[in-house]
Design a protein that fits this description.
By secondary structure, the protein is α/β, with parallel strands linked by helices. 36% of the residues lie in helices and 25% in strands. The strands form 2 sheets. It has a 7-stranded mixed beta sheet, with helices on one face. The protein has a two-stranded antiparallel ribbon with strand order 8-9. Helix 5 crosses helix 6. The two termini are 19 Å apart. The protein binds 5-O-phosphono-beta-D-ribofuranosylamine.
Length: 208
């Protein structure tokens, strides 16, 4: 059984999807053992407590330098015996130490079809605003491993979602969450926990 540690900053609907997926058996061979937030008042922490999952808070502002923060986060994850780290709406950039220590063991969910609308500055509603500005007819979500290139790690699963005429960024965000993010993130986590993902030359190969 693998220990899953989830990093959050906000509402935690993706965390909720993971909790529900664990309960219903969609996540095989994995258990969410800790939720770590970058913000003490994140609602995601309430979701964790309601489900008897232990919580921690680590704030970038409490560290003098980025490298001190990077080190502290790495040590915290090691102390939690994390086998897999999931970024579920975590709004703080990860540093070299944590990324290299957990190489191909950190999964992020991005609300677009990478390589579209991704990279630095593409987070939250900005992603959907950019998609609508371009007039794409399909957007979606991507679950991928995290490496040092922002949104550039090996892609595990993608799911396309229709963009409809008249969509606002908020409406598109909600559709992508419901139809894609909340489905593919638990699936990617399960594939990892079942040892079904192999990364070869920066490509994630899935054996089903
Ligand atoms: C999601 O849109 C996710 O794709 C992005 O941040 C948002 C988090 O939402 N990385 P929530 O906190 O899971 O509700």
């Amino acid at each position: 059984m693998k220990n899953i540690v989830v990093l959050v900053s906000g509402g935690g609907t993706n965390l909720q999807a993971l909790i529900d997926a664990e309960k219903s058996g969609i996540i095989k061979n994995g258990k969410i053992t800790c939720v770590i937030s970058s913000k003490p008042d994140a609602y995601a922490l309430t979701r964790a407590r309601e489900n008897n999952i232990s919580t921690e808070v680590i704030r970038r502002a409490d560290f003098e330098s980025f490298s001190d923060y990077d080190k502290a986060l790495t040590e915290l994850l090691i102390s939690k015996n994390a086998d897999l780290v999931v970024l579920a709406g975590f709004m703080t950039i990860l540093g070299h130490e944590v990324i290299s220590h957990f190489e191909n063991r950190i999964i992020n969910i991005h609300p677009a079809l990478i390589p579209s609308f991704c990279g630095e500055g593409f987070y939250g509603l900005r992603v959907h605003e950019a998609a609508l500005r371009k007039g794409v007819k399909l957007s979606g979500a991507t679950a991928h491993f995290v490496n040092e290139e922002c949104d550039g790690g090996p892609i595990i699963i993608q799911k396309a979602v229709e963009v409809k005429y008249g969509d606002t960024p908020e409406v598109l965000q909600k559709r992508i969450m419901e139809q894609a993010e909340w489905k593919i993130l638990p699936k990617a986590v399960s594939l990892f926990c079942e040892d079904k993902i192999k990364v070869i030359n920066n490509i994630a190969c899935i054996s089903e």
